[in-house]
Amino acid sequence: MLEVKHLMKSYDGHKRSLTDVSFTVATGEVAAIIGPSGAGKTTILRSINQLIKDDEGQVLLNELDMRQLNRSQLRQARQNIGMIFQNYNLIEPLTAIENVLHGCLGNKSTLAGIFSLYRQSEKEEALQLLQKVGLGNFAYQQCRHLSGGQKQRVGIARALMQHPKLILCDEPIASLDPKSSTLVMETLRQLAIEEHISVLINLHQVDISRQYADHIIGINGGQVVFDDHAEALTDTAAAQIYRKDLVLNEEAAV
Amino acid sequence: MIKPEKQLTIPTPTAKGPQFKMPVKLKDRRRVTIYLTLLVLAYLTMVTLPTMLPDHLNLKTASLTFLQNIQIMFFHPGLSNTTFVQLIQALLESILLAFLTTLIGSVIAFVLALVSFRQLVPAWVGLAIQSFMALIRAIPNVLWVLIYSVVFGLGANAAVIGLTFHSVAYLTKVYTDSMEELEPDAIETMRAMGLKNGPIIRQALVPNFIPSYLSWTFIRFEINFADAVAVGAAAGAGGIGYQLFMASSFYFNFHEVGVIVYLILVFAILLEIASYHLRKRVMGNQ
Amino acid sequence: MTPKALTISQFFFKKRLHLTLLVLILGLAYVVSSIGLGFQTTALFHAQDGLIWLLHNFIPNAESMRYWQDIGHQLVRTFLIAVTSTTCAAVISLFLAALGANTLSLNNAVTWFIRGFSSLMRNIPIVAWAMILLFSFKQNDLTGFLALFFMTMGFLTRAFMETIEDFGMDKIEALQATGANYLQVIFQGLLPEIAAALLSWVLYMIENNVRDATLVGLLTGTGIGFIFDLYFKGMRYGAAGLVVLAVIILVVGVEVISNLIGRLIE
């Protein structure tokens, strides 16, 4: 489903933040990328939808190389990829349902986007998605009045509205309390199973990745140092991933 | 085993040395600049002040007549050459002028601000537009009105178009600045969803931009009202400013000047209060 | 939180209705004001005529270069008046602001009096200042200086008061707790801390006064504004163009210097 091959990225021409990263994510699988900060987790995630342009390698989404696309092809490809952020990145002054509806703008005309013209079916779907993540009662609330956990679930509903094949999550629970974290992670896990969406998550908690991921990719110093089933991640293996001597360039962290 | 990275990424203390020195140097440079600037300003003032006094002017009598006129204005306002209704009409004209130049200015400036917004266009476009706006603002308002009153003939068209120039230039600058201050996350998110610029502007930029848009536009409305009064007098562009000009330098009637100044004061202070409350409300919502 | 009794269609309809009404009201206000004022919207599409006219007529020619000395002299005077009126106003404003700021003031009545006074000073239109002063001080630089001085004083008093109040009550109380008296608090605690902020207000006002000096000159028959009026009404457009060029150089120059200082002290 998603294949990353020999991805490389450098800053300022010489500092390498990624050196030869390769891994695959299967359909309907929850994969977690773990590793110390500065290891290049965010860079990998953003290279997949080309928010960061990498130097070399291939990112294949259903055999389509994201790196070889022109602008409008890239826009089309991005519509298939939902993204969830640590800071939720909602449009705070707008209501929850409006934020969710943004997810379907990708396959609508520019004019529809400018005048917020949504079909009745789309509005109903957005409401159903909000109900699904447990926020049916908050549909008409401005997002700035929601709690962090609620905002993140609006973010998930927005990603689902895109009908994505893949959801990228960049530290989705780093700003949340344990209870909200559990809820968000459970929702993501459920989606992968029910909707056959692949989910790729950047995490820094080893225990949570063990609990919710099928597949764990350990990154250190811009390299893949672990790539196996979640059960294979023993305490020693985890310690190996976080080994300090492999952290090559902390300051290169984005 | 919880959050192991916390132990691993403690910053090394070696970085502290140079960091400590920097602010001290900065503070020195700051202090020297402040002292030097004050010194230069004081020197210029000392040199200029004595040359300001004209040769054939009795400062004492001049000051006395000035105070007398002020007293007439504020304590004995009255009308003789115009009626109160005419003055209210003139005030309304100035308000309409300010409103129109603000509305037109804010629409044009919003488009220009988008066109010079760094997250959407190449940097040189923004720089070109901002430089052009600075040029427009360097030419005084009243000159724009005077120029257009030659091209269009004296009247509402010249007044509106002439005043709109500064309105546009000012608002373009402040709109662009407040757009640059917004979090780039919202726009990046929309881009990650594969949206085009049009929807991104409408759905991500506009909702976040509305509070600063409102407060800056209202501030410009205050300025435009003052400008409308000024050019009314200096360029004969009508409104309450023109009435003020006539009363003071044609009829020399300071009772009437008093009434006019009171009218302008009341409206200006009302605007100031409204603007203050609007900004407080808008910022409170953020 | 109970669910609102809104259906989706109702919600979006309401939203759309509000937006449509807003646009309609603004549009209507535009039309009404245009008619009330006698402004023709088509004039907007002829705005370029003015720029073309400007570029066509305002090009300084060899003949207008004769005026360069006059213009240069008035330009320097204009700059000096702008600076002097600002500095003089700043000194008095600082005094008033220190008396009136509610974090320093002992008396609420004083605060309100100074607040009202500064509001009066800055909201009396500069045109009125110029005209009233012109009557008693006649046609000379002093009139322009005083007009700018009064308005600047009103503006800076408020700005300084806000700057002092932003400094915070707690810091002032901390200083008072060490046994410092009113003057010590101001000169040793407050002023060094807020000097940069005060100076940037002064620089802003100098910029502003350089722009306004042209207007005041036009009204009082002094300085750069007066010679522009002279050349312009005498249809000596080349020379008027030279004045405009000089003003641009002055304004941009002051702006650049002020930005530079601003960056050094921030």
From TrEMBL, chain A:
<dbReference type="GO" id="GO:0016887">
    <property type="term" value="F:ATP hydrolysis activity"/>
</dbReference>
<dbReference type="GO" id="GO:0005524">
    <property type="term" value="F:ATP binding"/>
</dbReference>
<dbReference type="InterPro" id="IPR012693">
    <property type="entry name" value="ABC_transpr_PhnC"/>
</dbReference>
<dbReference type="InterPro" id="IPR050086">
    <property type="entry name" value="MetN_ABC_transporter-like"/>
</dbReference>
<dbReference type="Pfam" id="PF00005">
    <property type="entry name" value="ABC_tran"/>
</dbReference>
<keyword id="KW-1003">Cell membrane</keyword>
<protein>
    <submittedName>
        <fullName>Phosphonate ABC transporter ATP-binding protein</fullName>
    </submittedName>
</protein>
<dbReference type="InterPro" id="IPR027417">
    <property type="entry name" value="P-loop_NTPase"/>
</dbReference>
<keyword id="KW-1278">Translocase</keyword>
<keyword id="KW-0472">Membrane</keyword>
<keyword id="KW-0813">Transport</keyword>
<dbReference type="GO" id="GO:0016020">
    <property type="term" value="C:membrane"/>
</dbReference>
<keyword id="KW-0547">Nucleotide-binding</keyword>
<keyword id="KW-0918">Phosphonate transport</keyword>
<feature type="domain" description="ABC transporter">
    <location>
        <begin position="2"/>
        <end position="246"/>
    </location>
</feature>
TrEMBL record, chain B:
<dbReference type="GO" id="GO:0005886">
    <property type="term" value="C:plasma membrane"/>
</dbReference>
<feature type="transmembrane region" description="Helical">
    <location>
        <begin position="145"/>
        <end position="171"/>
    </location>
</feature>
<dbReference type="InterPro" id="IPR000515">
    <property type="entry name" value="MetI-like"/>
</dbReference>
<comment type="similarity">
    <text>Belongs to the binding-protein-dependent transport system permease family.</text>
</comment>
<feature type="domain" description="ABC transmembrane type-1">
    <location>
        <begin position="91"/>
        <end position="275"/>
    </location>
</feature>
<keyword id="KW-1003">Cell membrane</keyword>
<feature type="transmembrane region" description="Helical">
    <location>
        <begin position="32"/>
        <end position="53"/>
    </location>
</feature>
<keyword id="KW-0813">Transport</keyword>
<feature type="transmembrane region" description="Helical">
    <location>
        <begin position="225"/>
        <end position="245"/>
    </location>
</feature>
<keyword id="KW-1133">Transmembrane helix</keyword>
<dbReference type="GO" id="GO:0055085">
    <property type="term" value="P:transmembrane transport"/>
</dbReference>
<keyword id="KW-0472">Membrane</keyword>
<dbReference type="InterPro" id="IPR035906">
    <property type="entry name" value="MetI-like_sf"/>
</dbReference>
<feature type="transmembrane region" description="Helical">
    <location>
        <begin position="95"/>
        <end position="114"/>
    </location>
</feature>
<dbReference type="Pfam" id="PF00528">
    <property type="entry name" value="BPD_transp_1"/>
</dbReference>
TrEMBL record, chain C:
<dbReference type="InterPro" id="IPR000515">
    <property type="entry name" value="MetI-like"/>
</dbReference>
<feature type="domain" description="ABC transmembrane type-1">
    <location>
        <begin position="75"/>
        <end position="258"/>
    </location>
</feature>
<feature type="transmembrane region" description="Helical">
    <location>
        <begin position="181"/>
        <end position="206"/>
    </location>
</feature>
<keyword id="KW-0812">Transmembrane</keyword>
<keyword id="KW-0813">Transport</keyword>
<comment type="similarity">
    <text>Belongs to the binding-protein-dependent transport system permease family.</text>
</comment>
<keyword id="KW-1133">Transmembrane helix</keyword>
<feature type="transmembrane region" description="Helical">
    <location>
        <begin position="213"/>
        <end position="232"/>
    </location>
</feature>
<protein>
    <submittedName>
        <fullName>Phosphonate ABC transporter permease</fullName>
    </submittedName>
</protein>
<dbReference type="GO" id="GO:0055085">
    <property type="term" value="P:transmembrane transport"/>
</dbReference>
<keyword id="KW-1003">Cell membrane</keyword>
<keyword id="KW-0472">Membrane</keyword>
<feature type="transmembrane region" description="Helical">
    <location>
        <begin position="112"/>
        <end position="135"/>
    </location>
</feature>
<dbReference type="Pfam" id="PF00528">
    <property type="entry name" value="BPD_transp_1"/>
</dbReference>
<feature type="transmembrane region" description="Helical">
    <location>
        <begin position="238"/>
        <end position="261"/>
    </location>
</feature>
